[in-house]
Amino acid sequence: MKVETYLRMAKLPYKVVETLPLKAPKGKLPYIENEGQIIADSRFIIEYLQTQYGDTLDKHLNSTERATMTAMQRLLEDSLYIGGAMYTRWQYSAENWQENKKAIFGGMPPILRDIAAFVYRKMIIGKQIYGQGTGRHQAEEIFHLGRLDLDALSIFLADKPYFMGDKPSSLDACAFGILVNIIRVPIESPVKEHALSLTNLVSYCERMMLTYYPELLHAE
Ligand SMILES: N[C@@H](CCC(=O)N[C@@H](CS)C(=O)NCC(=O)O)C(=O)O
I want to staple 55 with a disulfide (CB 3.0 to 4.6 A). Which of 50, 182, 208, 209 is the partner? Predict the structure, then answer.
């Protein structure tokens, strides 16, 4: 969602191709293919697109603003994404896991789907969530950290239209990509409840949807 949002914001044409992380060069999605080149990881993809097609979104930002963007991006991707999205989808509750399983493995034939989902879930919970460290905390501790991340984002956004001010920047692709995946998905948790109570984050997601994904709003 982050890369797709960036592409829409920068008005670069693209085609989404469904694939599996197993086939990705670094074992994770997203990756892109462009003019015979393959680039993996959203951060490298955006850097590549900025170099290749010009940096239309961030060029007005000074070095202090860029430093803030880097820190915010790490908060979103290395902290909130793990506790607020991955943990709640893969580990926290049976209901959330069923939703996640349907969304990710729903297209596979029944028996294969159950085996793939079981194996994959074990790997994500053990190797990634536990391995990264988040999985060693109690649920309430994980949610406490998630709420602190959300509070920081809400206070930083304040009443600005975009995270870096009046104009959209690449940080918005990242922030929207993760926030909308907490706020507007059928995955229930205290992190989502807290996010829904931060009205500037909720209306930010509405505005971003309206501007960059109007077709999804109409489909709802
Ligand atoms: N740092 C990477 C993270 C990407 C990531 O976490 N991808 C997840 C899906 S959203 C994935 O492919 N997971 C599969 C796996 O770890 O096996 C990026 O920003 O592109």
Answer: 50
- Residue 41 DSSP label: S
Residue carrying structure tokens 């914001």: 9
Q: How far is CA 46 from CA 58, 65, 161, in A?
A: 11, 17, 22
**3-class SS shares of the chain: helix, strand, coil, % to 5:** 70, 5, 25
**Contact indicator for 60, 53 with CB cutoff of 8 Å:** no
Q: How many CA atoms lie within 13 A of 41 on its CB side?
A: 5
Per-residue pLDDT tens digits for 19-67: 889 889 999 999 999 999 999 999 999 999 999 999 999 999 999 999 9
Listing DSSP states for 178-219 in one string gives HHHHHHSSS---HHHHHHHH-HHHHHHHHHHHHHH-HHHHHH
What's the pTM value of the predicted model, to 2 decimals? 0.96
Testing ligand 1's pocket by substitution, the residue of 19, 29, 43, 128 carrying the most ligand atoms inside 8 A of its CB is: 29
Residues near ligand 1 with C-beta < 6 Å? 21, 27-30, 41-43
Q: Which atom of ligand 1 is nearest to the CA of 120?
A: 17
194 closest CA partner among 101, 48, 89, 84:
84
The residue whose C-alpha atom lies closest to atom 3 belonging to ligand 1 is: 41
Res. 161 pLDDT band, cuts 50 70 90: very high
